[in-house]
Specification:
The chain is built from 21 helices and 22 strands. With 554 residues, it is α/β, with parallel strands linked by helices. A 10-stranded mixed sheet has the order 6-9-8-7-12-1-13-20-2-21, with helices on both faces. A 4-stranded antiparallel sheet has the order 15-16-18-17. The relative contact order is 0.19.
């Protein structure tokens, strides 16, 4: 028995020694960064880029821009927006949140706020101040976007070690893609200043590299003559230079090359004239390069995110139209800027260390007056006549002229207080208005809020409307016009519909983690964010509804 007790004592003593092993000798969990991820993800949105700009101008592109992405990366040839309306604010939000306005809440560039009874701007925020200018142009933030972006999720995943920077000539093109947790978003304030600015949502003063860039007179250097990059006679992919379908600039009689920007700036809001030329894209590229250097993006193994939106393509398209030589030249020059940008990334971040995707926020319709000259059904809506007829109907039917609070973004917002005071049922009023408006000339479809919230459309234009309908923010009545019928001037192009000319846009992936290939299978804009999230191994944006494009990931 004594022997057993002694053996037990020895066993307990040995166990106690093991239990009291010094902390310094304990093994800690290994700390290792996932070096298989790209050091930098660059998201590029080309404002108002139709898919056919890739193919129409293909012979004018070099090998280092669009073609490099196509030849070395993956080309989704049947990529579409899956909602209405196709505007800049919703487009940028949808690309980076992986969902549609139904969920992220950015239902337009501007919309009528039913609670405060006035129009609001998608990025407007009076609670913040401008940084880099005394102008109100900096009163901006992403606070109206209800969901996260993949940049937000990367910031959360890396415990804020991965940076996110957003850049665009347009404030909304910088702010919405960068998300809520971004280190910075910068946009261009033209007029008499020609400076890149931000807001106190991000910081209280500009970093030195931004101040240095603004002081470098980079914007001034682009106030020069804009002529075609190649001989204009070779621009056979576009209409004649002298035609009646283009807007042009104030101070110049005809919308024809060349354009002396230094001579025209005073009549066209100073530095803002650069926005409507390809030089605005060049200036954006210059600033993006400085941002990568100044913020040391892609210089360690923790993934950073840079969002770049090229806005000049949209301004040029609105001014000159889809088939103009000005649009063709703008894309030829953008291709050169992309080549320059990719070469810089090769040198600064390292070829094979970064990932890029390129898409658009919407397409554009051919100028209807141009289509009419080609005998294609198209035209312009007579909103004045429609308004008069509709007001007469309301007075006759409901004995009231105060039933409408607002008409905007092809939506009608009803005065619900007035409807209640008249003892009317809101659903009955909506349906009566639907039945009235569907008989108006060039109105293709009309839907009520009741239909949008009680039906489940899975196909057709109806499903696109539903994906764009936010119950909290959208109107009581939604209208769709006939194809190629728009509320716009007789020159230049616009967008906003759910038709192919507005929904079919490029989607190119290129760089680390991306396989080489192409597909004609349909992809949609909300697929982008979950695909990038899957590539990085991070959480999807919190309201993402898109699918991971697994065939894109190597």
């Amino acid at each position: 028995m004594k022997i057993i007790i002694n053996l037990l004592f020895v066993f307990l003593l040995i166990s106690s020694c093991h239990a009291q092993k010094p902390i310094s000798e304990e093994k800690s969990a290994p700390s290792k960064v996932n070096t298989s991820n790209p050091k930098l993800v660059v998201g590029i949105v080309v404002d108002q880029m139709r898919y056919d700009y890739l193919t129409r101008f293909e012979n004018k592109y070099g090998d280092g821009g669009f073609k490099r992405m196509i030849n070395e990366g993956f080309n989704c040839k049947n990529n579409h927006f899956n909602y209405i309306p196709t505007y800049t604010g919703p487009g940028h939000a949808s690309v980076y949140t992986g969902t549609t306005p139904k969920n992220h809440g950015i239902i337009g560039n501007n919309w009528y706020d039913k609670e405060i009874k006035k129009s609001v701007y998608c990025a407007g925020d009076d609670t913040v101040s401008s940084v880099g200018t005394k102008d109100d142009a900096g009163h901006m933030s992403p606070h109206r976007m209800k969901t996260t972006t993949f940049g937000d999720e990367n910031r959360l995943f890396t415990q804020k070690q991965g940076k996110t920077i957003g850049i665009s000539l347009k404030d909304r093109g910088a702010i919405l893609p960068a998300g809520h947790t971004a280190n910075a978003a910068y946009w261009f304030h033209g007029r008499s200043e020609g400076a890149w600015i931000t807001s106190t949502f991000y910081m209280n003063e500009l970093p030195k590299w931004v101040s240095d860039f603004n002081a470098s007179q980079a914007a001034e250097s682009y106030l020069k003559v804009w002529d075609t990059y190649y001989d204009i006679s070779t621009y056979t992919e576009s209409d004649s230079d002298d035609n009646t379908f283009e807007g042009g600039f104030k101070g110049k009689e005809k919308a024809t090359f060349p354009y002396d920007l230094a001579m025209l700036e005073n009549d066209n809001r100073g530095f803002d004239i650069l926005k409507a030329t390809p030089y605005g894209n060049s200036l954006t590229t210059d600033f993006a390069i400085e941002a990568i250097k100044g913020e040391q993006l892609g210089q360690d193994d923790i993934t950073d995110v840079l969002t770049v939106s090229y806005s000049s393509t949209d301004y040029v398209g609105h001014n000159f139209g889809v088939s103009s030589k000005e649009v063709e030249d703008t894309y030829i020059r953008l291709d050169k800027d992309l080549e320059r940008f990719f070469k810089f990334l090769d040198a600064q971040v390292g070829e094979g260390n970064y990932t890029v995707f390129l898409t658009a926020d919407h397409g554009a319709v051919e100028v209807p007056s141009y289509l009419q000259s080609m005998k294609i059904p198209s035209g312009y809506l007579d909103n004045k006549d429609t308004k008069m007829r509709f007001e007469t109907y309301l007075n006759t039917k409901f004995k009231s002229s105060d039933l409408i609070e607002n008409v905007s973004n092809n939506q009608i917002f009803l005065n619900r207080k007035q409807i209640d005071s008249l003892g009317l049922n809101i659903n009955d009023v909506q349906e009566a208005i639907v039945n009235e408006l569907i008989g108006y000339k060039h109105i293709e479809k009309v839907f009520s809020a009741h239909t949008m919230t009680t039906s489940n459309f899975t196909t057709g234009i109806e499903s696109l409307l539903q994906n764009g309908y936010n119950q909290k923010r959208s109107g009581d009545i939604i209208l769709l016009s006939d194809p190629a019928y728009i509320s716009y001037g007789k020159t230049g192009s616009t967008h906003g519909s759910g038709l192919n000319y507005d929904t079919h846009v490029p989607l190119l992936f290129f760089g680390k983690g991306i396989t080489k290939g192409e597909t004609y299978n349909k992809t949609v804009i909300p697929d982008i964010a979950p695909t990038i999230s899957a590539l990085l191994g991070i959480s999807f944006p919190n309201a993402s509804t898109g699918d991971v494009l697994g065939f894109v990931i190597d």
